[in-house]
Structures are given as structure tokens and as C-alpha cells.
Amino acid sequence: MSDAQAGGIGGVPPPDAAVKRPGPGAGDLKPPKKSIKKTLLLLVGVWIGGVILLYALFGSGGRNNSYQPQNEFKLDNWINAGVFSINKAVLYLFLAAIATCVSMIYVANRMQARPNKVQTAVEVLYQLMRDNITGGNLDEKMARRWFPFIGTLFLFIMFSNLVGYIPLPTNTEEKINIFGAHIPSFSLYAATANLSIPLVLALLVFGSYTFEGIRAKGPIGYLKGLIPSGVTGGMAVFIFFLEVLSNIMRLMSLSIRLFANILAGHLIILFMAGALAVILGVSALAWFTIPAGIALFAFEVGLVAALQAFIFATLTAIYLGGAVAEDH
Question: pTM here?
């Protein structure tokens, strides 16, 4: 075979030339399934082995009655000033407010025609607040008037929930000795895990939609609107008091839902991260429950924090829309 035939004409290989295929793994972007399986089996082995090893070394020390998990949420005043006392709930409120203001101002001052990832995430949040939460439950005029309030409420609650998952040295019950300095141990806490904070927010919502209803219909018209048209006599009186009770129940619904979900999430994470092992006196139990603790932490941060803010803000918009509705 001549050189021209072997190399082809014009650099083009002849038709009967052997096709060279890339070797195994060339161009593969995904790791082989076997390596993933081996990694998972290795992790499971380390997890089970760690449980067995810790139990063999430390065994069970018996139930620990001195540790009280609820003390993690106890509020000890750092600065005593009456109603203006400073404790960790106040600290987390300030952190949430600062995070809300700084993050939004920072992004607003750096808006670009071609948004980066941070700006894109903020724009998605903005569309969620404007189109779904506010625009989906209020008419255009009401949406323009109340969007700043509802949007701020959503962002503040979301940041308050998220800040609560950052471990900070706020646990004054247990202290760490570092070079003679007694520093509070790290713990998780959220301002919304204190019932007073969601209750104040619920009262703010209650006052807002009551004000809007009275502004739109007048005091007498708003009270008359609590009774459905066509209902008269004793039934009208009964329905009126039932509607008043329903509005009071909204305060409980808004506040307790937010408070209970955040508090329950923090307690479960606390138990799975080692509190259960401390209470029962079984060190190996902490290693056994830590994967569940990590999964629950990711679930709370990735879903629950934003979901509870979304529910609170959506109900606020619904109540505002209902206060001015003709059939209310």
C-alpha cells in the first residue's frame, strides 16, 4: 500500500481505515456507578463501625437528669433594663433585621443588565412576592399599596428563620473555658422560636387588615361586613360573634404556626445532634443519630425557613384582600 493510500487523500482517511475509538473513561463526566456505590458502602461502614466502637469504649453511663434541653431556649438577660433588657432573642432580632436590610440594599445598588447568581435569586424572590403572594391575592391597587409591607414581612421572617440555624455563642447555661475566659457555648436559636415575636407580627397583621377594612368601608360598614348578606335576627348576632372569634383565632393561627414549626425544628435538630445521647448517657447514640441530624438541618434550612415565611406572608395578603371584599 502506498503512502498516499495509507494516509488517504488530502488528509482524509480511506474508507476501509480502522476507526480509532476513545479509550474507556475518555470524555466521561459522571463518575462510574460502582465508585458511588463503594463510597456509600464505605460511609455506611464507617457509620456502623463508629457506633460499635463508641459503645464498646464508653458503653452507657445511665440517664442524665441534670441536662434539660429546654434550657437551650431559656432567655437570660445580658443587660437588665426592664422592658428594654437585652438577651439572645433581641440579638437574633437585630441580626435578622440587619441581614434583611444589608442584603437587599447591597443587591439593589449592584443591579446589572446581565444578572449574576445572587441578583437572579433576589429577582426570583421579588417575583414570588409580587406575583404570587401579593398579586395573587390582592387587586392591582391594593397590591401596589401593600406590597412593601408584605414583602418586608416575608423577607424579615425568612432571614430570621435562616439566621436561627447559624451556631452562635449564646448558650449561657453551658460555658467553654478558653485560656481562662468563660465563653458561652455555641447553640442554635431563632427569634421566631419565641412566641412573643410571631405574636407581635400577627398583631401587626391584624391591625393592618382591620385598618384597611375600616378605611375602605367605614367602621359601621366593616362591622356589618362580618355578617353575610341575607342573614338576619338571632342568627346574625351569632354569626357576628363567630366572625369576631374567627378574627381572634387568626392571631393564634399566624403566631403559633410559625412559632411551633421553628421551635420543633430546632428541638429535633438538637436531639439528633447529641442531646438525646446526653440525656440517655449513651455516647454511641450521638454518632448513630448524626446523619438524621444533618438531613433534618438541611431540610429546615432548605425548605422550612422559606416555607413558613411564605405561608405567613400569603395569609397576610389573603386577610388584607378579605377585609375590603364586598361580600366580607
Answer: 0.80
